[in-house]
Amino acid sequence: MLKRITLLLIAFPVALLLVTLAIANRHVVRLVLDPFRPEAPVIAIDLPFFYYLFGALLIGVVAGGAAVWLNQSHWRHTARHRTQEARRWHAEADRLSRERDAEVGRSKQLAIAGH
After folding, report:
1. Among candidates 30, 32, 8, 18, which has minimal Cα distance to 61?
2. Segment 98-107, tens digit of pLDDT
3. What is the dihedral of CA 83, 84, 85, 91, to 10 degrees?
4. What is the pTM of this model?
5. Residue 30 DSSP SS3
């Protein structure tokens, strides 16, 4: 419940800010991708300015997520390795328990047969 309240307290104002930015920046802006002839560009894009703002925000989120994911690859590798090791030790402990139980069962049968 606290998580939902916190999300609403943060997400609602951020969404309101983004909508306000989009409304305030509706005018069309030309993005020129030709540095040699800016007066008659070969490649140019005419879009409302808020598209560029949201595009930059999206690129930043994706680039930041990729950087964090790449930076944490060492920890994911370590976690996978330790999980495999723990499963191997758990299987070994189970096998030893079964062997012990079988040995105890055999010794009980021998004790009963010896009486």
Report:
1. 18
2. 999 988 888 8
3. 110
4. 0.61
5. strand
